[in-house]
Specification:
The chain is an alpha+beta fold and 146 residues long. The protein is built from two helices and nine strands.
Length: 146
């Protein structure tokens, strides 16, 4: 299934006041995400994608994606198995003159298509734990320092 969302972000929106939009998705494996920054964004619109409160794109919480007249294509193998089946898109716009509209498209395929019968069980979970678990440990450690 292809999920699509156009998100318009007002001018002069700071990171502290970032817009947050949820995209409801279905159970399955995210195989691709496209993010289109139309001409005129000039790198002033910044975006992050989260799943279950953790940064998903990019995986570093202090980074973001930005562009101008460019569509990013991210090939991904990330399984969505439990409620809530939503991704949260966080945007802000440093442009002091114009609002901008960003397109986000998410392709989710059934697990049986991506991981045919006979494939090793748990590969996606293992890969996910290699990325997300270290981030959670780091975040917990940083919270303990404050």
């Amino acid at each position: 299934m292809l999920f699509s969302k156009q998100i318009t972000i007002a001018k002069n929106t700071s990171e502290a006041n970032a817009s947050q939009t949820e995209i409801k998705v279905s159970k399955g494996v995210i195989t691709n995400i496209w993010i289109n920054f139309p001409s005129g964004c000039a790198g002033l619109v910044k975006l992050r994608v989260y799943h279950e409160g953790h940064p998903f794109l990019p995986v570093n919480a202090d980074n973001y994606i930005r562009g101008n007249n460019y569509t990013f294509k991210f090939p991904i193998m990330y399984e969505i198995t439990e409620e809530p089946m939503t991704l949260k898109v966080e945007l802000w716009n440093d442009d002091d003159t114009f609002e901008h509209t960003i397109d986000v498209l998410i392709l989710i395929l059934p697990r049986k298509v991506v991981m045919p019968i006979g494939a090793t069980e748990g590969i996606l979970e293992s890969l996910k734990s290699l990325v997300i678990r270290p981030l959670v440990i780091k975040q917990e450690a940083e919270e303990g320092e404050t």
